[in-house]
Design brief:
alpha/beta, Rossmann fold, 3 domains, 38% helix, disordered N terminus, binds pyridoxal-5'-phosphate
Length: 408
């Protein structure tokens, strides 16, 4: 049995650290929910649940220096993650990705301090490995027997890999037009692959049916609380890699928005821990979407607190083809609280920018990552970004999986 989540974090630097997870809270009304049983959306508002930790105790028992001496991977900040004990922490090498200076691309864009956090180096070649590594580890710890996930491709691959590591069966549902490699990857990793005529929302409906019928555990974005915790680790890494001096602006390619919400949650926790000064200026968070599917951009521009579903969503960036995000309120809150913005870019700009960025940096970005670079160009041209801003873009995946986009 895992130790209870409320057990004191380890004070022995050689022992496996113990999670300080305390409870879950509803992201709308703040009501508490138990953290040591399986939880999906909040029972009060049917909205995402957020993991809450005993931060005071962590601050007393761990220092940033001690955490920094641990391996640079997903589990470095284990006290601040939900998995109770070391035996359940699945390790495929997720996290610990490089933060790269990009002098050639940056100078060309008029942003000489531009940096890329290159998430394509994660297992299964995308940042989805962080969220699924966390969610599958925690699901296994809580006794889940069968997993299911709707996905645009990258999340399915990551779920398949971690399910294989955990020895759990997983059903993955992807739109039928998903690039072939995503399907092959899942099959080879042992997942049961289902192709659905429609979008990720239609895939989600198929998963929901399986939850009712077969008792599958639904790993959909933000419908369980722990993928977010895995994505949060990007925020901790950015803080550490920037030696506590956070960038002025972070650009994130937003589908369901877990990365943006997670990074923002990490900064709030760092402040509460006292690891960031209370008056530290936090980065402006920018949600980047495709002009063929931009529900968050539209809601942001209208001043809405929630986003309405985008009709006829279409973009080559499969990860951005999310017409309705369950975390819409949280995404919009993070953008507004941070003084950020939301911006849509065209598919053609993504392709052009991917080629340009790859040949100027050596990083071959997924179209979603390239969308951030195209957005940086647009925001610099409009003057929203200034020349000496310290700008960080997330390259969330590898261009290698999208071979069909690069054929001339
Ligand atoms: C490469 C890539 N970038 C970005 C995203 C969007 O991630 P999120 O849904 O967490 O916003 C996805 C989602 O599939 C993706 O695969």
């Amino acid at each position: 049995m895992p130790p209870p989540a409320s057990e004191s974090p380890s004070v022995n630097s050689t022992a496996e650290p113990v999670s300080a997870l305390d409870h879950l809270s509803c992201s709308v009304c703040d009501r508490n929910h138990e953290a040591d049983t399986l939880q999906a959306l909040s029972t009060c508002c049917s909205r995402p649940l957020l993991a809450r930790y005993d931060l005071e105790r962590v601050a007393q028992t761990v220092t940033p220096q001690r955490a920094a001496a641990r391996p640079f991977d997903l589990w470095r900040y284990a006290e601040l993650l939900p998995v109770g004990s070391g035996e359940h922490r699945l390790r495929l090498g997720s996290g610990g990705t490089p933060l790269l200076a990009t002098p050639r691309l940056g100078t060309e864009l008029g942003l000489p301090r531009l940096r890329i956090k290159d998430e394509s180096l994660n297992p299964t070649a995308s940042f989805k490995a962080r969220g699924l590594g966390m969610a599958v580890s925690r699901a296994a710890e809580l006794g889940v027997r069968r997993l299911a996930i709707p996905s645009a491709g990258n999340a399915a691959g990551a779920a398949a890999a971690y399910a294989a590591a955990a020895g759990l069966p997983v059903d993955v549902f992807m739109p039928a037009d998903v690039p072939a490699l995503f399907r092959t990857e899942c099959e080879v990793l042992g997942a049961s692959v289902h192709l659905v005529d429609g979008l990720i929302t239609d895939c989600g409906a198929r998963v929901r049916a399986g939850v009712e019928e077969h008792g599958w555990w639904d790993l959909s974005t933000l419908k369980e609380p722990y993928r977010l915790e895995g994505k949060k680790t990007m925020g901790y890494e950015i803080w550490q890699q920037c030696e506590g001096r956070l960038p002025d602006t972070i650009l994130y390619p937003t589908g369901g928005g877990t990365g943006l919400i997670g990074i923002w949650k990490a900064f709030a926790e760092l402040r509460a821990l006292g690891w960031l000064p209370a008056d530290a200026v936090l980065p402006r968070m920018v949600a980047v979407q495709s002009s063929g599917c931009a529900p968050i951009v539209r809601a942001f521009e209208r001043g809405d607190v929630e986003a309405t579903a985008w009709v006829d969503a279409a973009t080559i960036a499969d990860g951005l083809r999310v017409p309705a995000a369950v975390g819409d309120r949280l995404i919009l809150e993070a953008i507004r609280e941070s003084g950020g913005t939301a911006i849509a870019v065209d598919d053609a700009a993504m392709i052009a920018e991917a080629r340009r960025a790859a040949s100027r940096t050596g990083v071959f970005p997924a179209p979603e990552g390239a969308a951030c670079m195209a957005a940086a160009r647009q925001l610099r041209a409009s003057g929203w970004l200034r020349e000496h801003d310290d700008v960080l873009v997330l390259n969330t995946g590898s261009g290698l999986k999208y071979a069909h986009l690069w054929e001339a």
